[in-house]
Structure formats: structure tokens, C-alpha cells
């Protein structure tokens, strides 16, 4: 059996690589002889490959352009990029028993970025006639007319299933896709992180995932928690207070260059110099692969993060989590996991608020019964996904 996954396996945001790894784990757990091939829809071929240089500056410029100009630029640039890898995509899809489009927040329309990439994947899958399933995707209710046209290319493929990862995505899909198949819930494969990457000891205190507010703002569906004060000051205040309360802190990011740049500024702040020198604040080397990222997260006894997959991986390892909102997908996951009391999207959120939440989350712990129930639901989604594959003749 051959399965090809169209996702973002080599994204600098390593949470997307965690998704790809966990999709592969889930399939081979259920079908040990399956061969899983991963395709990066941003046309990357390895970790560290830069597709767009100076992304933060470019995004800042694009956000101020008229929509039709944004879309024309995106169509020119992204189609040209994908032209260079289309033959590779076609070769991978040919003869596959199933193509999976997902997971991740790929059904979102920011300057046509994902509509173009996903639309081109559907073009290939139409040409190869490959049975296709949309699986565990996030969906934003922001599709433009052109974005909807590109996403609706799914009508031209042999679409066996549509799986979205939370109730918000389910609602957004129904509002923007009027045709069958009807969407169903398939939880995020990142929940399989602990099963895939293996056990780890929580030995590094509270993990604080540093994320660039500019990048979040570009993709945000709401306010960015804590953004009223600015990135460096926000994180420095949280870290200082956590240390003052007797906690050690590990600083990390999900790997994107913009996030690492902000982390470096935070770590260089003079107010943290003494705590870093005394080992109360630790700054491990930047992760360069999904396994690196998971190792950092799994070593923490709790995690505070804006990034969804920092929270999902931590939850997979039964680590308490505090979610800092900016997009509906984060709040939706906290609802799925039963962790809503430890989520906030308030832009005026203070260090006192956050440290209080994380200490409460640590005291509450993760209910193992509820945790297993969430994992069971995620595995049920995998089983429904694999049930769409047509058995070979005579099987």
C-alpha cells in the first residue's frame, strides 16, 4: 500500500513537520506494510530550505497592498515555484492507493497562499486519478472569491472523505463548501507525538514558546494574547515572574526564523542575565527538525504557547498547557482537550495572569482518563480515513 501526504513537512514552523511525522506514524501503526510519501506543498525538499527570504518584511508590505495586487503577486510567485516541482508531485501520486491532503491550517486564505498550493495539489491528483481524502485540517472562514474557486478544485478529484480537526473548522467548511462529501471530525495527528517520538522525562521546568507577534498578526482571526505590550516586554515579564515564583523556565520556539529572532532578543534582555547565568532560565539550541522540537517540549513540566502544536505536543505527553490565543484553532483545541480554563486571547493579558494560569494548570494536571478518550477519538479518525481505501482485487 502506498499513501502520499500533501502537507508542509519541511516547514520552518516545525509543528507542521510534527503533523507529517504523526500522519506517517498513524498509517504505519494501522497498516505496517504501508509506504508513506510526504510532499511539501511549499515546494521545499528538506529542512532549512528557504523558499521566501525576508518573509516578515515581505508580509508587512503585502498586507498594505490592495487585495487584487496581493493575489496577482501570489499567483505569479507561487505558481512559478510549484511549476518546478509538479513533476515530482505527479510521480509521487501515481499509483498511490490514497492521497491525503492535510493536516494543518491549510484551508485558510491569506493572500491566496494556501488556495494556490492546495489547488495545485488537486490539479495533480485529478491528473493521476488518485483517490483522495482531506484529513485533520484546520479551516478558516476567510475564503475570498478567488480562494474559494481554487479550493473548490477538490470537486474534480476522487474525494473519498473530508476530515476537519475541530468544531470551528467544521462550521467554517460547511459555510464555504456547498457540496459533498460532508465534513466529519478527525482530530489533529499531532496527538500521536508521544507514541511516535517515544517517552521523555519532564526535567526542564516551564516551557515558554516564543512567537513573533507580527507573523501571528498576519494570520490571526482575532486579537493576539498579550500583544498590547509588545513581544520582548511581554515574554520578559512572564519569565521574570515565573522565576520569582520559584520556577525554572526553558525558552524555545517552533523553529521559524522570525520566532528565533525574537527569542534571541528576549534571551539577551538585561533583566534575564542573572537568571540565565544561574540556570533558572535555559535557552537550548534552536530546533532544526520536528524531533528536536518535540524533545524540548517533552522535557518541560508545562508549556505556555501561542503556537498550536507546541500545545498539542505537550498535551500528547500529558504536560499541562496554557494557550495564548490569536486564532480560533487554538481555542478549539483547548475545548477538545478539556483545557479551556487555561486559555485566553486577551491582548491585555498580563504576566500575573499567565503565571497564575500555568501554576493552576500544573496543580490540576492532565486527567489520564480524559486524555485517553481524546487519543481514542484521534485514532478513530485514522481508522475512518484508512477505510476509504479501495481494497485490491480479491482482497
Structure description:
This protein is α/β, with parallel strands linked by helices. It folds into two domains: 2-193 and 375-386, Rossmann fold (3-Layer(aba) Sandwich); 199-364, Rossmann fold (3-Layer(aba) Sandwich). 47% of the residues lie in helices and 14% in strands. It is built from 17 helices and 13 strands. Strands 1, 2, 3, 4, 5, 6 and 7 form a seven-stranded parallel β-sheet that branches. α1 crosses α13 (290-298), α4 (86-93) packs across α5 (113-128) and α10 (231-244) packs across α11 (257-267). The longest helix is centred in the last third of the chain and has 19 residues, at 368-386. The protein is globular, with a radius of gyration of 21 Å. 51% of the residues are buried.
Amino acid at each position: 500500500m502506498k499513501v502520499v501526504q500533501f502537507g508542509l513537512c519541511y516547514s520552518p514552523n516545525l509543528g507542521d513537520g510534527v503533523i507529517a511525522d504523526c500522519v506517517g506514524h498513524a498509517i504505519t501503526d494501522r497498516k505496517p506494510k504501508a509506504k508513506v510519501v510526504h510532499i511539501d506543498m511549499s515546494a521545499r525538499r528538506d529542512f532549512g530550505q528557504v523558499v521566501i527570504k525576508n518573509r516578515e518584511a515581505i508580509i508587512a508590505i503585502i498586507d498594505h497592498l490592495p487585495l487584487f495586487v496581493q493575489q496577482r503577486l501570489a499567483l505569479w510567485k507561487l505558481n512559478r515555484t510549484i511549476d518546478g516541482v509538479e513533476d515530482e508531485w505527479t510521480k509521487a501520486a501515481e499509483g498511490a492507493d490514497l492521497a491525503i491532503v492535510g493536516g494543518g491550517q491549510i484551508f485558510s486564505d491569506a493572500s491566496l497562499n494556501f488556495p494556490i498550493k492546495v489547488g495545485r495539489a488537486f490539479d495533480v491528483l485529478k491528473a493521476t486519478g488518485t483517490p483522495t481524502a482531506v484529513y485533520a485540517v484546520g479551516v478558516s472562514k476567510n475564503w475570498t472569491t478567488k480562494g474559494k474557486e481554487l479550493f473548490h478544485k477538490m470537486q474534480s478529484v476522487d474525494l473519498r472523505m473530508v476530515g476537519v480537526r475541530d468544531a470551528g473548522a467544521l462550521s467554517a467548511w460547511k459555510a464555504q463548501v456547498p457540496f459533498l462529501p460532508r465534513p466529519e471530525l478527525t482530530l489533529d495527528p499531532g496527538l500521536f507525538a508521544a507514541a511516535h517520538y517515544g517517552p521523555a522525562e519532564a526535567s526542564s521546568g516551564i516551557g515558554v514558546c516564543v512567537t513573533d507577534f507580527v507573523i501571528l498578526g498576519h494570520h490571526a482571526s482575532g486579537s493576539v494574547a498579550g500583544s498590547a505590550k509588545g513581544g520582548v516586554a511581554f515574554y520578559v515579564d512572564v519569565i521574570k515572574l515565573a522565576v520569582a515564583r520559584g520556577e525554572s523556565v526553558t525558552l524555545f520556539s517552533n523553529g521559524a526564523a522570525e520566532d528565533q529572532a525574537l527569542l534571541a532578543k528576549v534571551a539577551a534582555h538585561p533583566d534575564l542575565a542573572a537568571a540565565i547565568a544561574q540556570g533558572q532560565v535555559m535557552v537550548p539550541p534552536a530546533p532544526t527538525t520536528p524531533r528536536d522540537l518535540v524533545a524540548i517540549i517533552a522535557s518541560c513540566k508545562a508549556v505556555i504557547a501561542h503556537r498550536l502544536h507546541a500545545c498539542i505536543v505537550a498535551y500528547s505527553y500529558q504536560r499541562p498547557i496554557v494557550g495564548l490565543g490569536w486564532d480560533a484553532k487554538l481555542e478549539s483545541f483547548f475545548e477538545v482537550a478539556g483545557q479551556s480554563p487555561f486559555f485566553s486571547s486577551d491582548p491585555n493579558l498580563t504576566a500575573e495572569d499567565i503565571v497564575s494560569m500555568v501554576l493552576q494548570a500544573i496543580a490540576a494536571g492532565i486527567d489520564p482518563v480524559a486524555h485517553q478518550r481524546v487519543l481514542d477519538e484521534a485514532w478513530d479518525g485514522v481508522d475512518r480515513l484508512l477505510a476509504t481505501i479501495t481494497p485490491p482485487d480479491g482482497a
